[in-house]
From TrEMBL:
Binding site for (6S)-NADPHX: 225, 281, 331, 398
HAMAP family per UniProt: NADHX_dehydratase
Entry keyword annotation includes ATP-binding: yes
Listed name of the protein: ADP-dependent (S)-NAD(P)H-hydrate dehydratase
Gene: nnrD
Record-linked InterPro entries: Carbohydrate_kinase_pred_CS (IPR017953), CARKD (IPR000631), Nnr (IPR030677), Ribokinase-like (IPR029056), YjeF_N_dom (IPR004443), YjeF_N_dom_sf (IPR036652)
Keywords on record: ATP-binding, Isomerase, Lyase, Metal-binding, Multifunctional enzyme, NAD, NADP, Nucleotide-binding, Potassium
Taxonomic classification: Bacteria, Pseudomonadati, Pseudomonadota, Betaproteobacteria, Burkholderiales
Similarity comment: In the N-terminal section; belongs to the NnrE/AIBP family.
Organism the protein comes from: Pelomonas dachongensis
Amino acid sequence: MHALLPTTTTLPLFDVAASRRIEARALAHSPDLMARAGLSIAKLALALRRDEGPVWVACGPGNNGGDGRVAAQRLAEAGIAVHLSHSPPERPALVIDALLGLGLNRAPAPELLATMAAMQACGAAILAVDLPSGLLGDTGQPAGERAVRADHTLQLLTLKPGLFTGEGRAHGGRLWFDDLGITPDEAASADLLGPAAAPARSQTSHKGSHGQVLVVGGAPGTQGAARLAARTALACGAGRVYVDLLDLSADEAADPGQPELMRGTAAELPQAVGVIGCGAGAAISDALPALLQRLPRLVIDADALNAIAADASLQALLCARAPASTLLTPHPLEAARLLGCDTVSLQADRLAAAQALAERFSCTVVLKGSGSVIASRGERPAICASGGPALATAGSGDVLAGWLGGLWAQQPGAPAHRIACAGVDAHGRAGEAGGVRRAGDLISQLAPSR
Ligand SMILES: NC(=O)C1=CN([C@@H]2O[C@H](COP(=O)(O)OP(=O)(O)OC[C@H]3O[C@@H](n4cnc5c(N)ncnc54)[C@H](O)[C@@H]3O)[C@@H](O)[C@H]2O)[C@@H](O)CC1
């Protein structure tokens, strides 16, 4: 058993159906899985309990509850006061939530909700067994009106995707893992991203070796967004970075504060990676047909996504692009517009929504938000384990788009999916901070991670 994040490698995630298959096969040769699970929970509980008070263990009707009962027995054998009940003891030192795990299949009834509320109100830290009760392991959404907000979750046997995206990240607390000595014997359902290697820079390279990025966007009043993207592509190591700011007069500098940036257009730079849409406003619509047809690799963000969502002919041009050549970076509202649904239903299953978008437009999709999801046709989806609320600030999406463009310029042969995984993870790690990380500071934080 070990703490999980941050992870230094990409880890396999298994959805509920896959976890059940793995468990069923493992039980054939290792019938003591529940004993192992209970012991692991007891060990973690011993380390986490805050004082000599009783450990409150609330067990449900299935094997999740079984794990809890074994843990209670182990704790009692170790001389710890244990309170096995659905109602709280006086001043518990820790709560073990073993009400519901993988088997959650409906909204919890009022009695269970009352126990969950009592856990939350009792003042002690909550250790959830496998999954916080009421939280769906595949999507990270509560099945009913509430799920337990745990301080710690010990995942057992497999890592479940729902703990890493959407509401799951707010419910799991600190994540721990025990594989119970079992190596999964089937392919993962999704990847939990670890860091990727930075693009190589040879001793003999020159600026022409590291590609070109063209940022198109920045309507009057929102030029900062495009400039943030361009500055980030430069910091990422792209050889040359150009900006095409909508409505900027011909004699103005690309970015007065960043002399390395140049003016350019798609017609002049047919091999550049296009980063299009940042701060673009509605004016991007007119430029989009040429951009979609002309540039071999595109990162499409913000207002360019909104324009495509509203125009079937732009959607047709998007679908006609070469495979693995286009990367969309929508936040949930933009993604909902593209899919023609509302954000609540989109957020209810972020993995499925990202995959649906990738299939519909034959693109790689980065569905941003807590636990960004990366999906592409024919690829295993990935979830970003890094990042946090410090990134919830203006400009951080522009920085991501610029970083993706910068990475892609330096790796022209890489498919969009690989670029997306590498870039999103780096962006998340750079954004792990208390408080807020301003977009400008995020760029300098990203640069050393190259
Ligand atoms: N079988 C084993 O040896 C192992 C089991 N493990 C544990 O077993 C869990 C899965 O066990 P189960 O498949 O029994 O599933 P659960 O224990 O999560 O729940 C299943 C039971 O809860 C009921 N239920 C589902 N939703 C409900 C709701 N909203 N309100 C009230 N009751 C509800 C179901 O009807 C069923 O009786 C894992 O999460 C994990 O904790 C793991 O430790 C691995 C080893």
